[in-house]
């Protein structure tokens, strides 16, 4: 009886009407996503391939948040899975597109630390660099772009263009409202004017080995534009100011 039951189950799970994850994978790779999704719903999963099923649920799900929930389930429940690096990479793309660059950095660095042999290792370098660039951290962006080797033709081309862009310094005009030798004092003033709704930021210069932290308001392409804004700013805030021209990467 047990032999007959086993044989019956074998026939059921391998019958043409009962697809397995291999069928879904094949359809997905052929770009036949609708058919793949239909077959995926019909699969009777087992403990052995549940992580792979979750991966394709995520890849074929039309709703971004639901898709990410499947990938996160892989990461949490199956951290040693062969599909965990793919899940992490997909999560990082979502985080980047949502503007969560710091989260994307954390996820991408996890790939590089935990899966150094993964095919997503090198693309992660590019996305880490792009995340730093989005955060305006030029130093780290340049460092990571430089890690991309010539063997990756497409990525190397993107990195080369990015490095060229970041190396070009542009002259801008801004309104200086303070200069400090103490960084904390400068940051406090930046925060104060940011709370008022101004585009306040910090520039660091060095003279005779001493750093000076300049508090600036706005970025203007021309001196006339800066001058026009400075008049309105001066009338409202009634504090000393200077129009300065600086080079910024």
Helix and strand topology:
Blueprint: H1 2-14, H2 21-29, H3 33-42, H4 50-60, H5 64-77, H6 84-97, H7 101-114, H8 121-134, H9 138-145, H10 153-167, E1 170-180, H11 183-195, E2 200-207, E3 210-220, H12 223-237, E4 242-248
Antiparallel strand pairs: 1-3, 1-4, 2-3
Helix pairs in contact: 2-3, 2-4, 3-4, 4-5, 5-6, 6-7, 7-8, 8-9
Key traits:
249 residues, alpha+beta, Serine Threonine Protein Phosphatase 5, Tetratricopeptide repeat, Alpha-Beta Plaits, 3 domains, four-stranded antiparallel sheet, 60% helix, elongated, disordered N terminus
Structure write-up:
- This protein is 60% helix and 15% strand.
- The chain has 249 residues and is of the alpha+beta class.
- The protein has 3 domains: 47 residues, no CATH class; 86 residues, Alpha Horseshoe (Serine Threonine Protein Phosphatase 5, Tetratricopeptide repeat); 79 residues, 2-Layer Sandwich (Alpha-Beta Plaits).
- It has a 4-stranded antiparallel beta sheet with strand order 2-3-1-4.
- Strand 2 and strand 3 form a beta hairpin.
- Helix 2 runs antiparallel to helix 3, helix 5 packs antiparallel against helix 6 and helix 6 runs antiparallel to helix 7.
- The longest helix has 15 residues.
- It is elongated and about 75 Å long.
- The N terminus is likely disordered.
């Amino acid at each position: 009886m047990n032999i007959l039951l086993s044989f019956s189950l074998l026939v059921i799970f391998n019958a043409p009407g009962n697809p397995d994850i291999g069928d879904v994978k094949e359809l997905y790779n052929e770009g036949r996503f609708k058919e793949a999704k239909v077959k995926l719903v019909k699969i009777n999963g087992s403990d052995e391939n549940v992580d792979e099923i979750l991966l394709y649920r995520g890849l074929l799900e039309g709703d971004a948040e639901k898709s990410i929930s499947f990938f996160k389930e892989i990461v949490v429940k199956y951290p040693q899975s062969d599909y965990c690096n793919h899940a992490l990479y997909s999560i990082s793309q979502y985080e980047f597109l949502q503007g969560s660059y710091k989260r994307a950095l954390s996820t991408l660095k996890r790939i590089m630390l935990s899966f150094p042999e993964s095919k997503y290792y090198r693309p992660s370098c590019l996305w880490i660099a792009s995340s730093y660039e989005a955060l305006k951290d030029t130093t780290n962006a340049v460092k990571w772009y430089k890690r991309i080797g010539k063997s990756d033709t497409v990525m190397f081309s993107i990195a080369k263009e990015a490095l060229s862009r970041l190396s070009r310094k542009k002259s801008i005009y801004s309104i200086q409202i303070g200069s400090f030798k103490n960084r904390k004092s400068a940051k406090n003033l930046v925060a104060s004017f940011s709370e008022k709704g101004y585009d306040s930021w910090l520039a660091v210069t060095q003279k005779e080995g001493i750093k000076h932290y300049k508090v600036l308001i706005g970025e203007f392409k021309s001196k006339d534009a800066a001058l026009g804004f400075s008049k309105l700013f001066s009338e409202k805030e009634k504090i000393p100011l200077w129009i300065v021209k600086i080079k910024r990467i």
